[in-house]
Amino acid sequence: MAGLKTIIALSFVLAIGFLLVILSSALFKNYLTLLVVATYVIAPIPNWLCSRAQNSDDFMDSGSTGIIDFGRFLTGFLVVMGIALPVLLAHCYLITYPAMAMSIIGGLLIYGTIISFTMFFQEEQDF
């Protein structure tokens, strides 16, 4: 059971991740790395929508998980895009390499916090 200390620690790491992404834009006076924040916001939406769209029947499991797999694919694509976009921008010389590194490290901290949050606060289902 996760408590208040876990929530405080996860929020602290999340704040550091967002701080790194914002500093990667502000310190180098190039705000293209803020496009990565859009992928952080949009990434969980396909997974959430596809899990709601699946017709779940308690009495009969048809084994149809195609829509859930599609949602996971789109979420994975957006997560990889959030890491690959700063690399692409740095390769095209639109941002500097230190800005790329700060943006990637901040993104990994944010994604790690989201994964840790779901692991610590997952509800167990009793049948």
UniProtKB/TrEMBL annotation:
Coiled coil (residue ranges): none
Subcellular location: Membrane
GO cellular component: Vps55/Vps68 complex
Transmembrane segments: 7-25, 31-49, 70-89, 95-121
Keyword Membrane part of the UniProt annotation: yes
Membrane topology: Multi-pass membrane protein
GO BP terms: late endosome to vacuole transport via multivesicular body sorting pathway
Keywords, alphabetical: Membrane, Transmembrane, Transmembrane helix
Family, per entry: Belongs to the OB-RGRP/VPS55 family.
Protein name, entry field: Vacuolar protein sorting 55
The organism's taxonomic lineage, starting at the top: Eukaryota, Fungi, Dikarya, Ascomycota, Pezizomycotina
